[in-house]
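re: ur question from yesterday

yeah so i grabbed the chain u mentioned. its 317 aa long if i counted rite. heres the sequnce exactly as i have it in my notes:
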Amino acid sequence: MTSKALTVPAVALGTWAWGDSGEAGEGYFGSRLSESGLREVVEKAQSNGFTLWDTAVAYGMGRSETVLARALTGRDRSEYQLSTKFTPQIAGDGDDPVADMLEQSLERMGTDYVDLYWMHNPADVARWTPLLIPLLESGKIKHVGVSNHNMAQIALADQILGAAGFRVEAVQNHYSLLYRGSERAGILEYCHEHDVRFFSYMVLEQGALTGRYDPANPLPEGSSRAAVYNGILPRLQALTDRMGAIGENHGASAADVATAWAIAKGTTPIIGVTKAGHIDGLVRARGIELAEQEIAELQALADTADVDTRGWWEQEM
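ran it thru and got these C-alpha cells back, copy pasting raw so excuse formatting
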C-alpha cells in the first residue's frame, strides 16, 4: 500500500521554465535564469513552507530536473517533495519504458525516490498505468497522479492501480478562471469526494491573468504565448481590472488573486517561479480569503469574456 497519505503545501512550484537553455530567445519563455538566482528562489520558497517542486523530463528534455536538483543541493531530502512525470510521447523502446524514464529522472535529480509521479497525458492508460505498480511496490515512487486525463481515464487508471492496492491520489489539469473544464466535467467534485488532490496548472494563463498585460501592453511579441493570448486581451480587461481591485483590498496583485481563487476552489495551484519575488506573491495569495461574492463575481466576468484557452495538447474534459 502507499506509504502514507499525500500531503502538500497550499501551492506547488512549477519549474517548466527552468528547462530553458538559458540563451535569450530560446526555450518556451526565452528566459535568462542563473544558478544563483534559482538557488535564491529555492531558499525563499523552502523557508516559507513551499516545499513541493513540480518538474518533468519533457521540460527541456531533462534540463529542468537537472537544474532543480542543483538548486536544491545541500538540503536534506526530507525537506522537500519532488514531483515529475512519465511522458508517453517520449518513451523509449525498452522492455519497461516507465521504469527507464523514472531511472533517468532519479539520476538527474540525485535521489532514490519521487514523492509524486505523474502520467503526463492519457496516451494509452491501459498500457502504461500497470507499469507504475512495481515502482510503487519498490518505493521508488510514493504517490501516483494523472495529468490531462478526463473522468473515464482517471477512473480506469484508478481501477488498474486499485487491483494492486494503490490508487490515483492526484489529478493535474489546466484549470483557471478562464478554463474550468475540469469543474464542468465533475472532475473537481470527484476529487473532493474521493480525497484526491487536484492540482491546477496554468492558473495565471501564462501571464494573461497577472494584470501586467493589456491591449496597450501585450505579451512579448514572438513568444508562443503572445500568439495565443494577445488577441483576447481586450476581452479580459474587465476581469483583470476587477482582479486588480480585489487585490488592492488585500494588499496584493491581480496575479495573487488568481492564485487565491484556485486555492479557494479547493485546488493546489502549480505556479511557475523563476524569481525570488514570485514567492512573495504566493505568500500573499496563501493569506487571502476571498469572499463567496468575490469568487462568483470573478467567475461571472470570466464567463462574460467567453474565451477558450484550452491548450493544443488537451482533450475536451
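noticed a couple things. DSSP finds 13 helices and eight strands in the chain. also The two ends are 30 Å apart (CA to CA).
anyway ttyl
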